Amino acid sequence: MAEKTIKDIGSRKIIGMPVYSCKEGLNLGNIKQLLIDSKTYLVQGFLLERKVLSKYERILPFTAVHQFGEDGVTVETASLLERRGQNSRYVRALHHPLAIIGSRVFTTAGRTLGKIEEFLFSSEDGRITGLEIAPDGFFKERSLVRGEHLIAISGHTAMLKDEAILDAISLDNPLLSNIGNMADNMREKAGEFISNTADFTKRISTNINERIEKIKKREEDFLNDYDDDYGADQQEAANDAYLDCTPVDTEPSATELVRMAAADNEPAGDGIVAAKKSIGADDTDAEPNDTISP
C-alpha cells in the first residue's frame, strides 16, 4: 500500500467523514467525535457513529489510520477498530471532551485575540498545528496562528504565547497570506542556498589544494631528476657562471690592449702593433716612438 501522506486536517472537515476498510471493502461508519488528550493536546482517535444493528460504538485509534483522503478515511482492516470502553486511555477524552472550538484566546501578555472557530491537526502524529481565530478582540480579521504557540486549553479558554501576534497570518486578506507564505519560502530557499554555497566552496578549496600539491610534487620530481643528470658540482659551477657575468676564455679587444699597454707604461709602438695585429691592420703605419696618453 502507499505510504501515509502527511498533511494538516481540519477538525470540522473530519466530522461526518466515512471510514473504510481496505481489506474487506466495508463502510465502518462515520466519524462522530475527535478524541483529544487534554494533557498532550494530541488527537488520540475518532469515535464512530453507532451503526443500526450494532450494540456498541467503536473507536478508530489514530495510529490505525492508513490514509486521510478528501472524501474518507481508510484503515487496512476492520479488526483495527476498538469497542468503546475497551481501552481506558480514551476515558477522559470521551467523558470530558476538550472544548477547543469556541474557546476565547488570550496571550501571556494579557491580550484578547478572538475566538477559535477551527483548528488543524497533523495527519502524521495528531498534534495541533494551527488555530483559526475569528476577529473578536485584538485581531480585526480571521487569522491563522501556528499550533506551536499553544500553551494550554482549559474550559473555554486558550492561552497562547505573545509571539503568536507577530506570527499570525491573515485568512481574509489573500495578499498578506501570500506574503507570509512567500517569506517562509524565501527563508527556506535562503537556507538551501547557503548550504549549497558552503558545499561548493569546500569542493573548490579542496580542488585547489590538490592542484597545488600536484604542482609542488612535479617541481620536486624535476629538481631531483636535474640533480641526477648533471650532478651537484656542475650545477654549482653553472650557478657561479650565471652570477659572474665576466666572459670566460675571451680574447681582449684592440682597444683593451691599447689601454692595457698605456697602463703598464709600455712603448706605444708595441701596444699599437699588438692592437693592429688584433684587428688585422699593417704594422708599418705606426711610429715606434709615439706615445699614447692614457
What attributes characterize this protein structure?
294 residues, alpha+beta, SH3 type barrels, eight-stranded mixed β-sheet, seven-stranded mixed β-sheet, 6 helices, elongated, disordered C terminus
Q: What letter string, H or E per element, gives the SSE order?
A: EHEEEEEEEHEEEEEEHEHHH
CATH class of the largest domain: Mainly Beta
The separation of the N and C termini measures 114 Å
Give me the CATH architecture of the largest domain, please: Roll
Mean pLDDT across all amino acids: 79
Rg measurement, Å: 49 Å
Task: Determine the CATH superfamily of the largest domain.
Answer: PRC-barrel domain
What number of structural domains do the residues give? 4
- Given as residue ranges, the uncertain stretches (5+ residues, pLDDT < 50) are 281-294
Task: Estimate percent helicity.
Answer: 25-40%
Strand tally is 15
CATH topology grouping of the largest domain: SH3 type barrels
The major pleated sheet works out as:
8 strands, mixed
Structural class: alpha+beta
